[in-house]
Every structure is written in C-alpha cells, then in structure tokens.
C-alpha cells in the first residue's frame, strides 16, 4: 500500500511538472510574440495621430522611424509598391523627394536625371509633366506626381517630404518650396506632413510663404557645430549623416532646442550605432522592418 502511494505521488508530481513546463513555454511564446510585434504595432498606432502629437511624444526611447523612399531594396524608389511594403512593415511615415518638371509640376524622384532609377536618360527639370507621366519605374507603375501620392494614400499615412532643388530654367530657386506648400494646402495635409530641405533658403521660403507655420520643418544640415549654431530657430528637426555624427554634435543640436535626426540607416550596424551611441529622436531607414525590430530588442 505504501509503495502504491509513493508511485502515485511521483506520478502526480510528474504531471504537475509537465503542466508547469507547458504553461511556462506557452507564456514565453506569447510574450516573445508580443515583444516582437510591439515596436511594429506602436509605429502603426502613430498613423491615427497628428504629426504634431507624435513629435511632442517622441524622444530617444520612442524615436520616429521614417521609411526612406519607401522600401527600396525590393521595390523601385518612390513606388506605391515600396510604400505599401514599408507600411506593412509597420511604418507610420513614408518619404517623398519632390522636384519640379519643366512646366512646374511636382514629381516624386530623388534625382533630376532618371537614369539611375528608371534606365531612362531623362532630366526632370527639362521635361514636361505629360512626358514624365509616361516614364516606367520598372514594376508596371509610372513616375508619380506628388498629387498621385496624396490621392492614393490620403490621411492613411504620414508623409515626410523633401524639396529638391533642380534649378529649372526661368524659375526661382525656392519655387519648389512654394509649389510644395500649395500642394499640401490643396490636399489638406497640413497636419499630416513634415517638410525637409537641405537649403536654409528653401526652408525660409516655405516658412514665410506657405502661411503654414504649424508644419514641422526638418533641416538636412552639415554635421558641424557652426552649422548647428547658425540653423534657423523655426526648424523642428536638425538632421545629420550618421557616418559623420558624434555624441558632441547630437548634444549641440539638443542645446539649440531641436529634435535630433539621423540619415540613413542601411545595415544592422547603423541601427546599433544610432540607438546605442547617438540616441536620436528620429531616423531615416532603408530597412523599416530591421529598424523596428532592433528598437524592440533594445527596449526589452
């Protein structure tokens, strides 16, 4: 009888141990799944908030992630397919570079000459909008106007738009900034966009002429103390090339009262350096999924 009780007791202990292991394993898997999606979900949640609200809550512990030209390694730059991929990866902000056609229309392209991205030796600043609308991106899409992007995505996503100065003959150097302001107003995106420029004059023109002082401005500035000291006080972000940036420069930006931004994260090592050593308030990344996963891993 005593033997039977001992055997029964051991059996119960074994069952309890197995049950505990099962519970711990399932719990661990659920926690891992939650953590692996936490950063992605938190970025996706930002889409329902205004840009100004997002900026007020961002800091090095909760940096904004800008999807640089969409998701460019598997899709053409500035294509809907690339933007869609970035959004699926959890992006709240997709980036557009815009420059003027010969007849003053805003097209979404980083380069004035389209050869690198389309294989066509076409210069945007010397080509009409009618001709540019027929240029293929390589995936069946055509070169997009900024108006196409606004119509396609509306308020479902946030935009960070860089005014590119391609010096169209007969146009003022800051005309692209003026046209960008008009487009943002026309499509009602004033609360849904950040405007960026590497030209102080361009930022001044947008700030003065747009009548939209509430649109946050990001200055793509040189990584130098002098430039930081001379940056216009009305900008929100001061952005620097991560390869040239130091903790001292990041501190100088903070002392001016600006948010810090870094461009462009391309490899895992860039993410590590950005978030371990430099602690930015926002970043541009070519790999939205990798950056969001890294942020999640750092926060664990």
From TrEMBL:
Signal sequence range: none
Domain of life according to the entry: Bacteria
TM helices/strands, residue ranges: 12-35
Keyword Transmembrane helix included in the entry's annotation: yes
UniProt xrefs under Pfam families: GDPD
Keyword field: Hydrolase, Membrane, Transmembrane, Transmembrane helix
SUPFAM superfamilies from the UniProt entry: PLC-like phosphodiesterases
UniProt cross-references to InterPro entries, sorted A to Z: GP_PDE_dom, PLC-like_Pdiesterase_TIM-brl
GP-PDE domain ranges (all copies): 63-295
Coiled-coil positions: none
Biological process annotations from GO: lipid metabolic process
GO molecular-function terms, A-Z: phosphoric diester hydrolase activity
Protein known as: Hydrolase
């Amino acid at each position: 009888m005593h033997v039977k009780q001992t055997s029964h007791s051991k059996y119960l202990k074994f069952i309890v141990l197995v049950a505990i292991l099962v519970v711990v394993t399932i719990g661990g898997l659920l926690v891992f799944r939650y953590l692996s999606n936490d950063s992605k979900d938190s970025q996706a949640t930002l889409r329902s908030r205004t840009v100004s609200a997002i900026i007020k809550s961002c800091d090095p512990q909760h940096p904004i992630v800008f999807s640089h030209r969409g998701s460019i390694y598997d899709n053409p730059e500035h294509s809907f397919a690339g933007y869609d991929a970035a959004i699926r990866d959890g992006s709240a902000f997709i980036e557009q570079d815009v420059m003027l056609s010969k007849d003053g229309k805003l097209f979404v392209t980083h380069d004035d000459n389209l050869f690198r991205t389309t294989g066509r030796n076409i210069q945007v600043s010397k080509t009409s909008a009618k001709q540019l609308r027929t240029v293929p991106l390589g995936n069946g899409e055509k070169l997009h106007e900024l108006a196409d992007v606004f119509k396609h995505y509306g308020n479902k996503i946030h935009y960070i738009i860089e005014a590119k100065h391609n010096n169209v003959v007969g146009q003022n150097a800051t005309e692209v900034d003026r046209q960008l302001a008009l487009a943002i107003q026309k499509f009602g995106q004033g609360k849904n966009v950040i405007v960026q420029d590497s030209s102080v004059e361009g930022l001044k023109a947008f700030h003065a002429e747009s009548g939209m002082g509430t649109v946050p401005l990001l200055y793509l500035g040189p990584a130098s103390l002098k430039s930081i000291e001379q940056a216009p006080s009305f900008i929100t972000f001061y952005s620097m090339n991560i390869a040239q940036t130091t903790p001292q420069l990041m501190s100088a930006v903070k002392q001016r009262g600006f948010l810090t931004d870094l461009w462009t994260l391309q490899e895992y090592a860039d993410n590590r350096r950005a978030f371990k050593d430099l602690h930015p308030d926002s970043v541009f990344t070519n790999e939205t999924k990798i950056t969001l996963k890294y942020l999640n891993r750092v926060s664990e």
